[in-house]
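Why do we care about 3D structure at all? Because function follows from shape, and shape follows, mostly, from sequence. That is the central idea of this module. The next example makes it concrete: a single protein chain, its amino acid sequence, and then its structure expressed as tokens.
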Amino acid sequence: PATSSATIKVKNAEGGVIQFRNLVGQTVKSVQIASGVSEQFLSLDNLAAGIWLVSYTVDGMTVSTKRLVIR
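And the structure:
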């Protein structure tokens, strides 16, 4: 579980977007990732406690979706 921040690691270093969605499917936060970046530090201060779906998307295709618990 995370509290105020998280580090997102991506396997392929292509530019893309990290999206935080609630369990209803609404995108609440999106962060652009530059090409060549394999780790991104993100503040979670504006997200409510609970379960979030975090997706990494490249060129409109979702590469990975993981569950994140924020306390």
